[in-house]
């Protein structure tokens, strides 16, 4: 089942940006120590157990993360390799050769490693590469370089490409060659409902105007000696997607009373939406699926709260919307009204109004709906409140209304 994730208790020393299945933790500036948040998943039917994610924020520099690599090339053929190290602190990383292979020539320029083997040499060599951040932390990785005189056919894989109509889309053919030989492509079938441009394996498909449906390409890859099996690229041209549009909104609710509401979001394509809470709330929790949510305030909290959100329609995110929340002592959805009026003995009226316990009401009367006279004020202790008024013996028409004093 598709899952929706909900933050239960946010971190104390940072914030969590929660996306459909990925979350980013951002510690407060200058914070170091431990922090955590809890969350749970929902499959549309039932909530899963609450899980905890714990963080250790260290007051020290993290070295770059550079993994060992294995590079294969054909005899007498130079090979290039893009080095890519991660850095948890997002520091700038530079690369250098700590120890070069005994045979051949190795260089590094920016992130590009180039190895040129010695003429006719075949065998396996090793090099050690340093990745150093701008604070001096260094990680060393082992690069194994294999020079082979045995060639294997390239491998071309079937693949699918999804694009939107009336819009070009670039993609890379899925071709592998163990020896990193130069690859050429022979097209067996060209697309019928669009055109191709680019140099393989990097291509761009341009669908014909207002075409929607499926197109395909078939090709064979060659390394100059061997050919791959036939590979097919299926291209699905979809109707253009319209990103959802989110609007700011305000909701009001009573202390200790959950509030069910819908996010103010519009989607022209009527796609199924996944909700992402970016920041907040600070005084309650959000539950629910998609744009149908429930806000549950913290026990006895009264005041204001808010959270920001985006929704995902499967293709793109909406803009950021904000929900402002007002939590009050009394029910904001309560509607004051006269529930009943009955004549009882001795020309006396019994007037019953709907009420909220703890509030004070005044009954007023008027003969012209313009000038009103206060008859009596009372405190309510239940959901209804009774007033009594004497009817004049004269044949006059009277109107009644109730107003809230506090």
Overview of the structural elements:
The chain has 406 residues and is mainly beta. It folds into 5 domains: 4-57, no CATH class; 69-148, Immunoglobulin-like; 155-238, Sandwich (Immunoglobulin-like), CATH 2.60.40; 245-328, Immunoglobulin-like (Sandwich), CATH 2.60.40.10; 338-404, Immunoglobulin-like (Sandwich), CATH 2.60.40. 0% of the residues lie in helices and 55% in strands. It contains no helices and 36 strands. It has strands spanning 4-9, 14-18, 23-27, 33-42, 51-57, 69-74, 79-82, 93-99, 105-109, 112-116, 123-133, 138-148, 155-156, 159-164, 169-172, 175-176, 184-189, 194-199, 202-207, 213-222, 231-238, 245-246, 249-254, 259-262, 265-266, 274-279, 284-289, 292-297, 303-312, 321-328, 338-344, 348-354, 360-366, 373-379, 384-390, 399-404. The protein has a 4-stranded mixed β-sheet, with no helix packed on it.
List the helices and strands and how they pair.
Elements: E1 4-9, E2 14-18, E3 23-27, E4 33-42, E5 51-57, E6 69-74, E7 79-82, E8 93-99, E9 105-109, E10 112-116, E11 123-133, E12 138-148, E13 155-156, E14 159-164, E15 169-172, E16 175-176, E17 184-189, E18 194-199, E19 202-207, E20 213-222, E21 231-238, E22 245-246, E23 249-254, E24 259-262, E25 265-266, E26 274-279, E27 284-289, E28 292-297, E29 303-312, E30 321-328, E31 338-344, E32 348-354, E33 360-366, E34 373-379, E35 384-390, E36 399-404
Parallel strand pairs: 6-12, 14-21, 23-30
Antiparallel strand pairs: 1-4, 2-3, 4-5, 7-10, 8-11, 9-10, 11-12, 13-16, 15-19, 17-20, 18-19, 20-21, 22-25, 24-28, 26-29, 27-28, 29-30, 31-32, 32-35, 33-34, 33-36
